[in-house]
Automatic annotation (TrEMBL), chain A:
UniProt keyword Cytoplasm, yes or no: yes
Compartment(s) where it occurs, according to its Swiss-Prot or TrEMBL record: Cytoplasm
NCBIfam families linked to this entry: gcp_kae1, T6A_TsaD_YgjD
Source superkingdom: Bacteria
Binding site for substrate: 140-144, 174, 187, 191, 283
Keywords: Acyltransferase, Cytoplasm, Iron, Metal-binding, Transferase, tRNA processing
Family stated for the protein in its record: Belongs to the KAE1 / TsaD family.
Protein name (record): tRNA N6-adenosine threonylcarbamoyltransferase
Domain Gcp-like, first and last residues per copy: 30-317
Reactions mediated catalytically: L-threonylcarbamoyladenylate + adenosine(37) in tRNA = N(6)-L-threonylcarbamoyladenosine(37) in tRNA + AMP + H(+)
Record-annotated membrane-spanning stretches: none
Residues bound to Fe cation: 117, 121, 311
Keyword check for tRNA processing: yes
From TrEMBL, chain B:
Pfam families xref list: TsaD
UniProt name for this protein: tRNA (Adenosine(37)-N6)-threonylcarbamoyltransferase complex dimerization subunit type 1 TsaB
InterPro entries according to UniProt: ATPase_NBD (IPR043129), Gcp-like_dom (IPR000905), T6A_TsaB (IPR022496)
Gene3D superfamilies attached to this UniProt entry: 3.30.420.40
Length: 367, 217
């Protein structure tokens, strides 16, 4: 490994949902992870309100960039590049981050890297556990996405193995928390209640696990409805709803399917590493069951600390640094925010000659 | 003085460079759906045309709306980030004031832009430099009395001839006018507001019914 001073110093900006994230990394070393969240402003609506998120991003961006630079103790002049989430995500929210990143890169004379939010969720693990094994199987679960991805090179090759055919796993947590009157977001609160409940108390359905169902796709809509119906039936009968058992049994149904399919994908593809990312990766039962099943299958599990699993700027910087290290083409100044950027595009290279600064021409540092 | 002015609060993506005497380069493109893609290349072009680099700029002038939010934020976020990176002040100018300044009208008139949803953003002016009402958002029919008999400019006025029978050009704001107005005010020792957006409407959001928060200790 080269001297760490030679590793690319990259600032990353993330605004795809309700977190304004600015992170700074040097290669695979985390220097700063500043996040301003508007989650409290959305709580009373029971979900993320796009316009509220966009307004909050505009307010928070400059102070958050400032905070990240101070935390990292670096000067913006020394950056080797500015990375930003170009998609997927909320269109208006993404556009605020893309506008900021373009202006910052242009004003500093640095290359701009528009990168994929999902690939960033995978790449962030480099900040925790070092260079990603190649290939890596990744299970990404959050309020916005639930997918199984296989990557042999996080800057150029991300292959979708499966994804949810209806709701994201995190959405199901939010919905069930709402039915139980537990507030928003649902993930952390369900996790807390579930710790005191019996996961086998109620046999909720495991979606898409039949012999003829797609092996790696997920479905949480049926589970959501089954749990809501079960609760309503209890209430209609005038009985008390056993909140802890419902939370534990519902959570078990979700993480059982997630881990079962992820381990199977690893086995089928001969991949001996599984990484889990996204906000739901903070779920304690998901982490425990994944650990148990991976150990039994001889798979090494990598899960970043919870703060790196939720949306943040460090993950964007991590992927940006990898783009610089592997000499990937920078984006052009007309980079669009693409709310449905395909997962197969880890970054958005410029279409025509990017005639701006390219003083960063380094060898691949990690191979 | 070298001011970089930009506005994305109307369908126009407009950029101008002002050297303290006059506008030395400018660009305006009308495309209501591509503010994000068009703005930075336009800035790059305007600077190249004037033979200047961004770091020679001594201040940024940004149209603060009112205008459709998604586009409006592109300009404000760009301006604010330039201010941070370059360490120069960022001045806000009401977009309607920029439109008014471009008219050279002597008597009272109205500026109205398209607020979508069958509404207009509007304000009344005594002359091209003097606004007499706060910017507001209304249905044209609801303000007919307040604007009766007055000449009007802006796309919102052109869109609703029943309310604004004396509507005429300019249709959209130009950053050149914004820059001239800001340069004039700054030269006279005046102060310009900070670049905070004029949204005028609360965000659309439905609060679910029967919803209360109970969080365990
Ligand atoms: Zn995410």
């Amino acid at each position: 490994m080269a001297d760490s001073r030679d590793e690319p110093l990259v600032l990353g900006i993330e605004t795809s949902c309700d977190e304004t994230g600015v992170g700074i990394v040097r290669g695979t070393t985390l220097l700063a992870d500043a996040v301003a969240s508007s989650v409290d402003e959305h709580a009373r609506f029971g979900g993320v309100v796009p316009e509220v998120a966009s307004r909050a991003h505009l307010e928070a961006m400059v102070p958050t960039i400032d905070r990240a630079l101070k935390e990292a103790g670096v000067s913006a002049r020394d950056l080797d590049g500015v990375a930003v989430t170009a998609g997927p995500g909320l269109a208006g929210a993404l556009l605020v981050g893309v506008s900021a990143a373009k202006a910052y890169a242009y004003a500093l004379g640095k290359p701009l890297y528009g990168v994929n939010h999902l690939a960033s969720h995978i790449c962030v693990d480099q900040l925790e556990h070092g260079a990603l094994p190649e290939p890596t199987m990744a299970l990404l679960v959050s309020g916005g996405h639930s997918s199984l991805l296989l990557s042999s090179d996080i800057t150029s090759d991300v292959r979708p193995m499966g994804a949810t055919i209806d709701d994201a796993a995190g959405e199901a947590f939010d919905k069930i928390a709402r039915v139980l009157n537990l507030g928003f977001p649902g993930g952390p609160v369900i996790d807390r209640y579930a710790r005191e409940g019996d996961p086998d108390a109620i046999a909720f359905p495991r979606g898409l696990t039949g012999p003829r169902d797609p092996a790696y796709d997920f479905s949480f809509s049926g589970l959501k409805t089954a749990v809501a119906r079960w609760i309503e039936a209890k209430r209609a009968a005038g009985e008390e709803v056993p909140v802890r058992d419902v939370a534990a049994s519902f959570q078990e149904a979700v993480v059982d399917v997630l881990t079962r399919k992820a381990v199977r994908a690893c086995k089928d593809e001969g991949v001996d590493h599984l990484m889990i990312g996204g906000g739901v990766a903070a779920n304690s039962r998901l982490r425990a069951l994944a650990q148990e099943r991976c150990e039994a299958a001889g798979i090494r599990l990598r899960v970043p600390r919870p703060k790196l699993c939720t949306d943040n700027g460090a993950m964007v910087a991590a992927l940006g640094a990898e783009m610089v290290a592997r000499n990937r083409a920078a984006s052009s100044w007309d980079l669009p925010a693409d709310s449905s950027l395909p997962v197969t595009e880890p970054h958005v290279p410029g279409t025509h000659g990017h005639d701006h600064v390219h003083e960063v021409s380094k060898e691949n540092l990690y191979s | 003085m070298l001011l970089l002015a930009l506005d994305t609060a109307t369908p126009a993506v407009t950029v101008a460079l002002h050297d303290g005497r006059d506008v030395i380069a400018s660009s305006s493109q009308v495309d209501a759906r591509r503010h994000g893609e068009l703005l930075l290349p336009a800035i790059d072009r305007v600077l190249a045309e004037a033979g200047r680099k961004l770091d020679a700029v001594t201040g940024i002038v940004a149209g603060i709306g009112p205008g459709p939010y998604t586009g409006l934020r592109v300009g404000l976020m760009t301006a604010e980030t330039f201010g941070l990176a370059l360490g120069v002040p960022v001045h806000g100018v009401c977009t309607l004031d920029g439109l008014a300044y471009a008219t050279d009208l002597e008597g009272p008139f109205v500026v109205a832009t398209d607020a979508r949803r069958k509404e207009v953003y509007w304000a009344r002016y005594a002359d091209s430099r003097t606004r007499v009402t706060d910017p507001a958002v209304d249905r044209p029919a609801d303000i007919a009395e307040q604007v009766e008999g007055l000449p009007a400019v802006g796309a919102g006025a052109l869109l609703y001839p029943d309310t604004f029978p004396k509507a005429h050009e300019p249709e959209h704001v130009s950053a050149a006018a914004l820059a001239r107005l800001a340069a004039e005010k700054l030269a006279a020792g005046g102060e310009l507001p900070s670049p905070r957006p004029l949204y005028l409407r609360r965000p659309d959001a439905q609060v679910p019914k029967n919803y209360k928060v109970v969080t365990p200790k």
